[in-house]
């Protein structure tokens, strides 16, 4: 769905690229603090959510699958301004503590304790009824002066007379980027772009803060996840929510974890979180890589699900719903320093789970960086 602002709203105070947790969290946090300007969220996906989106199906109105993040992980209970954003969602029941069972699986196929991973160390929450409910609620909390334009991938940016010029003659006084592809050279190979859009918009040496931010971003490495999605028939209620492979098992199978998502009618969604094997991703290579991932992961599942005979047997009846490539911006390396989150003279800001902080690489980081940036912008 694309919501195109009418001609009277072609100029906005703030454009935010990306309607994941960071983009929607930023808009909601700004409103909480009295920001009265117009906000336009531009999002490549079909709706809000980003990596915390939920997959729906046209042929099956009941189906909802958390096909990216299965929960919101925090290093500690939300505090301060982050709690002010999060607690109303808790009070409305849109987020609830995630009590789903998490188990580990060894390379030898035994059920063991889950590995010691930052995503599992602190409190975890789930969106109700699905993960996407949270970014949807944040977008709603951002009020009527916030508009979303979905299904729009921004691939070029221009800065002119103090305005950020976006596609379709839209302009914004300030710009916030929540993913880092628009600033990172990997977009050239991966998406076939001719230049790094943010770099060409503001020439070198015009804004030292902006130059420093782009330099740090260009040094970040990124990883992808190949998530295979399956529909399984009705299964009993006594299954884990997440099956995390131990580091040895991850190396053996190229899989991080398996997530089970019970549907309203007791069918089961199963998502395999496949790890990056470093194959170069280009528009030409991607279709072949998706096919390879599906066949590799389905084969691995026959071995990995053996400790759960009910699941292993239902694999023969599984319907494949495709493979999703996730998270080119999933950070592995050094995060962006907080001091570079807002570049005043170019009126551009950054937020997302790739900004420095204890929640780096997880939901907490996306939301905390949004709240921090909102403080700068107010
Ligand atoms: C497979 C997987 C499992 C995960 N598991 C967990 C977990 O267990 N716990 C946890 O806390 N976190 C987990 N995460 C991480 C969590 O999903 C992220 O930290 C969080 O969703 C990041 O939110 P964000 O808004 O920073 O980024 P994103 O969700 O990536 O949002 C950025 C948005 O920007 C859009 N965008 C980017 N470039 C453009 C462009 N040029 N034009 C238009 N739109 C653009 C993208 O489409 C995207 O919607 C997981 C992530 C993945 C991929």
Protein traits:
378 residues, alpha+beta, FAD/NAD(P)-binding domain, D-Amino Acid Oxidase, Chain A, domain 2, 2 domains, eight-stranded mixed sheet, 27% strand, disordered N terminus, binds flavin-adenine dinucleotide
Number of strands: 20
Measured by DSSP, the beta-strand proportion falls in: 25-35%
For the record, what CATH class of the largest domain applies? Alpha Beta
Average pLDDT metric: 92
Report the CATH superfamily of the largest domain. Answer: FAD/NAD(P)-binding domain
Distance between the first and last residues' Cα: 30 Å
CATH architecture of the largest domain: 3-Layer(bba) Sandwich
Low-confidence stretches: 1-8
CATH topology tier name of the largest domain: FAD/NAD(P)-binding domain
Structural class: alpha+beta
Could you state the oligomeric state of the chains shown?
single chain
| Ligand identities | flavin-adenine dinucleotide
Q: If helices are DSSP runs of H or I spanning 4 or more residues, what is the number of helices?
A: 11
Over all CA atoms, what is the radius of gyration? 21 Å
How many domains?
2
Characterize the biggest β-sheet: 8 strands, mixed
Describe the global form.
globular
């Amino acid at each position: 769905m694309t919501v195109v602002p009418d001609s009277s709203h072609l100029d906005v105070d703030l454009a935010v690229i990306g309607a994941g947790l960071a983009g929607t969290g930023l808009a909601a946090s700004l409103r909480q603090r009295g920001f009265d300007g117009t906000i336009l969220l531009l999002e490549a996906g079909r709706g809000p959510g980003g990596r915390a989106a939920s997959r729906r199906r046209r042929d099956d109105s009941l189906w909802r699958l958390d096909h990216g993040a299965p929960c919101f992980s925090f290093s500690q209970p939300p505090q301060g301004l982050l709690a002010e954003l999060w607690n109303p969602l808790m009070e409305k029941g849109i987020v609830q503590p995630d009590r789903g069972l998490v188990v580990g699986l060894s390379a030898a196929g035994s059920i063991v304790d889950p590995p010691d991973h930052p995503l599992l160390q602190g409190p975890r929450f789930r969106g109700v009824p699905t993960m996407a409910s949270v970014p949807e609620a944040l977008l709603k909390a951002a009020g009527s002066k916030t508009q979303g334009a979905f299904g729009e991938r921004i691939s070029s940016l221009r800065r002119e007379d103090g305005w950020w010029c976006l596609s379709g003659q839209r302009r914004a006084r300030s710009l916030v980027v929540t993913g880092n592809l628009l600033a990172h050279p990997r977009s050239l190979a991966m998406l076939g772009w001719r230049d790094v859009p943010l770099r060409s918009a503001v020439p070198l040496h015009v804004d030292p803060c902006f130059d420093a931010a782009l330099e740090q971003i260009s040094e970040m490495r990124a990883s992808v996840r190949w998530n295979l999605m399956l529909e399984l028939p009705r299964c009993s209620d006594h299954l884990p929510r997440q099956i995390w492979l131990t580091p040895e098992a991850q190396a053996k199978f190229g899989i991080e974890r398996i997530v089970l998502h019970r549907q309203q009618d007791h069918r089961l969604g199963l998502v395999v979180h496949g790890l990056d094997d470093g194959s170069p991703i280009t528009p030409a290579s991607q279709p072949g890589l998706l096919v390879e991932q599906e066949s590799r992961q389905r084969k691995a599942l026959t071995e990995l699900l053996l400790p759960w005979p009910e699941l292993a047997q239902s694999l023969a009846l599984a319907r494949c719903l495709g493979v999703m490539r996730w998270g080119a911006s999933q950070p592995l390396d050094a995060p962006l320093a907080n001091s570079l989150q807002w570049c005043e003279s170019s009126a551009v800001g950054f937020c997302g789970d790739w900004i420095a902080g204890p929640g780096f690489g997880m939901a907490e980081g996306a939301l905390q960086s949004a709240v921090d940036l909102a403080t700068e912008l107010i």
